[in-house]
Design brief:
Length: 334
């Protein structure tokens, strides 16, 4: 019992999900005196293994025990132990494994909540960083690249891409942030008539499991990518463009939380782009107003100087006329 209590307490001591899962399988192996342990994490809504955590020696064993790990009402995965030392597994071992699996479900739930909170914090901080960068003054191209790059990093995507509507009624990739060479991505056009275009131009988000095989995707670069999010950049009914965040083929799909946070980020980024554009217009207007004020001041100054010059000329003419009269009088008297 002391060993079980210590094991239960140790399982919930780390809030990092990866560390928690590894600790669960190691604790199960030690608690049941097994040679080998494994924790198979299942893909959401699929009966396939998404990740595998192991402990001990990986040998072929005839005797093994299994216990399901349930998080809330969802089967998160299965915990296995194999190769009891020195003899076969007992009912006590099975009971210990089930108790540990139940506690593991609680610990995993807590780790998930912690991970979700951290993920939300990163996206909120990223959106704030984008807003600050855009409002401190930058041109349109740099503003779009700032949004694309920050979103790519936050979403752990292979690329961050901005598309904007074309005059022909399609959409064109105008900015691409990627660790690889972006050649061949920028300038790619989604032609009018593409099934996905109606949704994008309508300001609807589009979520794709595999870009390479989805019939809605028609561009030449689709074969490079797998899971993808295409999110509207719109504010106040104004569609600025679309933020696309594709991952490589075979990489993990986006979760519901990923989609929610990315959609919120896109809305915030769109608002920041609109505000930055309005700020640039105000600054340009201020420049024009300054130029008008300077022109008026110069006009007034020129008028004043012309008036002063006219007065000086008038005074000079009067003095010249007076001098001529004096000279004539002097000659007449002589």
């Amino acid at each position: 019992m002391p060993m079980l209590l210590e094991a239960v307490l140790s399982v919930g001591s780390d809030l990092d999900l990866g560390s928690t899962l590894q600790q669960i399988v190691e604790t199960a192996t030690a608690l049941t005196e097994a040679r080998h342990g494994a924790l198979a994490v299942l893909e959401p809504d699929r009966d396939r293994i998404d990740a595998l955590y192991t402990a001990g020696t990986a040998e072929t064993e005839r005797s093994f025990l299994r216990a399901a790990i349930v998080v809330h009402t969802e089967v998160f995965g299965h915990l296995y132990v194999a190769g009891k030392r020195p003899g076969p597994f007992t009912d006590t071992d099975l009971g210990l494994l089930r108790v540990l699996a139940a506690q593991a479900g609680i610990a995993i739930g807590n780790a998930r909540l912690y991970g979700t909170a951290r993920q939300r914090e990163r996206w909120i901080a990223g959106a704030a960083a984008v807003t600050t960068a855009l409002l401190t003054g930058t041109d349109a191209a740099d503003a779009l690249m700032t949004v694309a790059e920050q979103a790519r990093v936050l979403a752990d995507a292979s690329a961050g891409v901005i598309l904007q509507p074309t005059e022909e009624g399609g959409m064109e990739i105008v900015t691409a942030s990627t660790p690889d060479d972006p050649a061949g991505i920028v300038g790619t056009v989604i032609e009018p008539g593409s099934p996905v275009l109606v949704q994008l131009l309508g300001g609807e988000p589009v979520f794709i499991d595999d870009s390479a095989t989805d019939p809605r995707m028609t561009t030449g670069v689709r074969s490079r990518f797998g899971p993808s999010m295409m999110l509207p950049l719109q504010s106040g009914g104004r569609l600025i463009g679309t933020l696309a965040l594709p991952r490589r083929r075979g990489e993990r799909p986006y979760t519901d939380l990923d989609r929610l946070l990315a959609t919120q980020f896109a809305s915030q980024a769109a608002l920041a782009l609109v505000l930055a554009d309005a700020q640039a217009d105000r600054e340009q207007l201020a420049v024009y107003e300054d130029r008008d004020r300077i022109a008026r001041d110069l006009h007034d100054l020129v008028v004043q100087r012309l008036f002063a010059t006219e007065m000086m000329l008038e005074s000079t003419r009067r003095r010249a006329a007076a001098e001529e009269e004096e000279e004539e009088e002097s000659r007449g008297g002589a």
